[in-house]
Write a structure and sequence with these properties.
about 190 residues, Four Helix Bundle (Hemerythrin (Met), subunit A), globular
Length: about 190
Amino acid sequence: MATLDFRPATHAVAAVLGGIRDDQLGRPTPCPGLTLADLLDHLSGLSLAFTLAATKEPVPGGGQASAEGSRLPPSWRSEIPTALDRLAAAWSDPTAYDGLTMAGPVEMPAEIAALVALDEVVVHGWDLARATDQPYGPDDAVVLACLGFASSFEVPPDAGAGPFGPPVPVPDSASPLDRLMGATGRDPGWTS
């Protein structure tokens, strides 16, 4: 597998982060039950976990996913973009894609971990943008890579939730970003 360029995705998410106000942290997000602060904590944690997956280092504390807004440090506006930059740099190394790695508590082929990480960044960037009424336009190549990955998990609506939640039907004529959101269980028309 060729290396993935995470930078267009991480830069798009960092732009959204720059537009989030403190008074918005309690807002709901497209992720059921998660506030904006919860989702920011999750993004911070997944950035670290998938950076360590790329470098094949263990995640401190066992790597359980967190989505707890009360853990969000006051310096999140600088820490999360820095963590996203580290994530992009880690996956720019071709050796990151070799062998098996741990993504939190789950072992998987490193090349799959890269796709999971990219998908998490792109999709949660959309979640953050929607929750704060901001524009979001990640690079089409990044979105298409994530769409290919997410579509490989699509399950018939009556077969259960799949790894992303029940898929939301989206027309084939919809934009790749809207189709990605539908494949990951999000309504592309969601608003806060």
